[in-house]
Amino acid sequence: MNSSTIKNYPTDDVRWKNVYAELSKYAFSKNSLIQVLHTVQDTFGYLDKKSIHYVAKSLDIPFSQVYGVATFYHYFTLKPPALHTCTICTGTACHIKGADFLLKAVKDNFGVIPCEMTPDGKLAIFTARCLGACGIAPVAIIDNEVVGNLEPEILLSKLNGVLKSVN
Ligand code: FES
User: Fold this and answer.
1) 91 within ligand 1 shell (Cβ under 6 A)
2) Quick one: residue 35, left, alpha or beta (phi over 0 = left, psi -120 to 50 = alpha)?
C-alpha cells in the first residue's frame, strides 16, 4: 500500500497524523498491529469501525482479523468513553465504611452498575480495590478529584453537579 493511499485518513481530524506517524515508525509492518491499535485508542479514546478499517488497510491485514484482535483484548474498547467517570473504592476500609451504599445509590439514581455507562454516555462507573486514601474512607474519584468521607447523598450531589456542567 503506498503512503498517499494510507494518508487518506478516515476523517479530517488532525489526530490521525499521530496514528500515521506510528504506522510510519513501524514501517507499516503487520507485526505492529497491537501497537498501532493502542495508539489509535490512546488518541481517540476508543476504536470504531472506521479506525479499524483504516488500520487494516494501512497494514494490509483483513478487516475481520483486526476486528478480531480489537474485540479479543479487554484493553480495547469499541465504545466512546463517557464524558465523566466515577470510580468507587470497594477496598476493605471503604467497604466497612459503606461503599456498598454508594454503589446502590448510583445504581438507583443513574441505573448503572460498575463498568457500565449511562445511555447518554455522560457517566461511567468503575470500582477499585483501595485508592490509597483509606483515612478518608469511603472514597471515590470523580473525574480526577478524590472525594472522601462520602455518604450516598453527597456522592449523588457531586455527580449531579458534574453532570450539569456538561454542555
Ligand atoms: S480501601 Fe478505599 S481507599 Fe483504601
Assistant:
1) yes
2) alpha
Which of ligand 1's atoms lies nearest the C-alpha of 94? 2
pTM of this prediction? 0.71
Give the domain range for residue 128. Answer: 84-164
Which CATH number belongs to the domain containing residue 25 in this structure? 1.10.10
Residue of 139, 141, 147 with the most ligand 1 atoms within 8 Å of its CB, for mutation: 139
Whether residue 53 sits in one domain with residue 19 = yes
Quick check: CB of 89 below 6 Å from ligand 1? yes
CATH of the domain at 148: 3.40.30.10
pLDDT digits (tens, 9 = 90+) for 25-84: 999 999 999 999 999 998 988 999 999 999 999 999 999 999 999 999 988 999 888 999
Q: Is 108 exposed, middle or buried (0-12, 13-18, 19+ CB in 10 A)?
A: exposed
